[in-house]
Amino acid sequence: MVVPEDRIRAAMETAGSDAFELHRELRLALGQAWDDELEPFRYASEDSPVIWLHKVG
What single Pfam family name could you report for this chain, choosing any that match (predicted)? Predict the structure, then answer.
């Protein structure tokens, strides 16, 4: 994934001197919410619960 320079600059400008806000803005730019939602589907083992997707598309 490539985050454009302008998006990073906008995150820095929005956050100002607040490090926590900068962290939040960068997580947003990197799509962390999508990663968090998809994480359960990345690992499979005998002990993992099965999540059936009945309707796709």
Answer: DUF3145
d(CA 46, CA 43): 10
Between CA 48 and CA 21 the distance in angstroms is: 35
Task: State pTM to two decimals.
Answer: 0.62
Listed as own residue / partner, the contacts of 21-29 with beta carbons closer than 8 Å and 24 or more positions apart are 29/3
Q: Give the confidence band of 40 by pLDDT, cuts at 50, 70, 90.
A: confident
pLDDT of residue 38: 85
Report d(CA 50, CA 54) in Å as an integer.
12
